[in-house]
Known about the structure:
This protein is an alpha/beta fold and 723 residues long. The protein has two domains: 32-92 and 123-177 and 257-362 and 571-678 and 702-712, FAD/NAD(P)-binding domain (3-Layer(bba) Sandwich); 213-248 and 365-477 and 512-569, Glucose Oxidase, domain 3 (2-Layer Sandwich), CATH 3.30.560.
Amino acid sequence: MNQSDNIIATAGAGLALAGLAYFSFRQPKETGREPWDDAKDAHEYDYIVLGGGTSGCVLASRLAEDPNISVLIIEAGEDMDDATIVKMPMGVVGLYESRHNWHLNTTPQVHANGRVIRQIRGRMLGGSSSINSTQYTRGPRSDFKQWATTFGNPGWSYEEVLPYFKKSECFHDPRLGPSHKKGPKTPRVYQPEYDTFEEELHGTDGPWPVSFHHQYDSTKGFIKANLDEGVPRLLDPSASPTVGVFRMQTNLQINGVRSSTSRAFLGPKSVPGGVDRGRIRIILKANVERILIEDRNDVKKAIGAEFRDGRGVLQRVHVKREVLLCAGVFHSPILLLASGIGYKIHDSIPLVHPLKGVGENLVDPFTCAVVYKAPLHVKTARMALTLKNIIPEAYKYFRYGTGALSSLLIESACFLRLQDISPEFVAREKANSTWQERASGPDAPHIEIMFVPHFNKYPLPDNGNFYSFLVVVLNPASKGKVTTRVTEVPAKGKGEKHLQLEPMIDPNYLADDFDIRVMGEALKFARKIGRRMQQDPEMGGVEYYPGEEAVPDNDDAALEAFIRKETFSSYHASGTCPMGPADNSEAVVDARLRVHGIDALRVVDTSIFPRVLAGHNAAATKPLNTIPPHISSTEIPLIISLFAPMAMAATQSATVIGEAALDINYDNPATPLDTLAPPADVDTSSEIAASPSSDIANNGGVEVGHNGSSFIAWSSPGYKGHK
């Protein structure tokens, strides 16, 4: 059997096992997720959450802790929590070409050889936390200090958001054995030299698991090579200074199952009431078209939303308290534009409120890969998942939640500062007056190198054993933006226009030459680590791509050409609805995530980051979802609690932001949430919501931004149908 046949046989065996596991692992679906029923469903809720992704799920769960609160989640995707392809970490690669990915692409990148670069984003309940690499890091402390001080967002220092990180987290201490009530019920080996952490930084009673999981022996070789090269050991990626080599923490349950925010925060045990709860209504396969805005005496206020249900029928729902926009870094600004907030995009969409910063300030850390060909004795993903090994590995996973199938490959990384890895580069840049200090402080890294025990480039060669480095510039100088292309297309119905909105994502990669020079230095240092691994008798190997002869370290032109040819996204974009004070013309929301100029509307996702975090975004979203929307000026607006999945290689941050933004009192959640009630002079009677066609003007206000002859649909041209 040749290598191609081996791969096909392996895939077939894996799919067969996954199919069997799907049925054996299925759990009862929860109530509250049935298709929209216009006759039975309420048309008014206390809160409407637009987007059931990484932050939206956490935010809804926290709000629903008050038994008197009703929450509606409107989500474009499906509920995939019980699907093995989502639960099993290695299954995620099968989702990238499915309908469960938004299939977004950038515009042709002028400074990256005109290439169109894909942006993977989860289109399912849990959002990108259901499709990411599950890595958990929070970002350097000085990043949060910079948000609070430099960008004018009080309450966002690391010391202030740390309690929200810990409240959302259930850290599994690797030292605990099967006999402990919080220990694993499966055979695991504690590795004290690798499974390091700082206990005081972690919480143990929250719903979101953080744990150490599978580690390839080749990952140990990467850690050893870093230490031999003088890189310090970082005991915990959430510690300070955030510099050194570390073992990756993951958002996996102790049984090896991915813990998306939907599984962690919307599961039957996450909200009082369990599966019988009626306070959270989740509408799936529904596309939000716009946020409804009322203008009363020159005061603009969000009063609800319009969406197309799974049948394509236009529905309207109203809100008693607040609309919470959680559509993500690319879709949140477009939904604001579709609602007339930002700037005018089409004659059928009147401008309701101008905000210069909507869609601007897009920053996406970018990546290049270096690939090594290893001897066959080196344990990598390819060796673990051969036809010979797939059955034993499947048994280990489905029986114990361990083994190669419980890994998402990025098991170790190092955070590095340019001053440490290339002081001569820093001196030269300063001498030339071209130096840009992109790190927020001396505890913050400029570079991340992640180790992948696999071939991280396509197509995969038929033969050979490989490992790769993913080299990331964490805070690039190049900035881009998100806009939208609006196209009128024929639609069913008399006189009805169909407005198709297509996200136009332009990260503007490599527009600033400084980014190219920084990546060049990072690649040179990555090669130093690679040479250390080559000299290790337990590792060995040779650089396979790009190859040191093809792209020598001393050839700046060749390095630049390689970078322009190979740069791709780290999938950690942020900043398109940045927070800041009202006198900052670029700010879209304030420090409590309230949209400037629009009452009862907040944005709660990674789009609000005023500057990208040097880490992985998923963890950072957790504080966003813990702060009550209307807090007094004396209360601390920690809006980051939903942003807790901040792990860099493919994660998104949302839990901390939500918790901080809402400042929920866990002991008495009803108390702070009561402060969210609308002013007494605002009529929130069910009369408004009794019928989707109610006339807002009858209640003293005028609905703005609506043209009854048009509706909006989302376009994802990169997706050609379910595969």
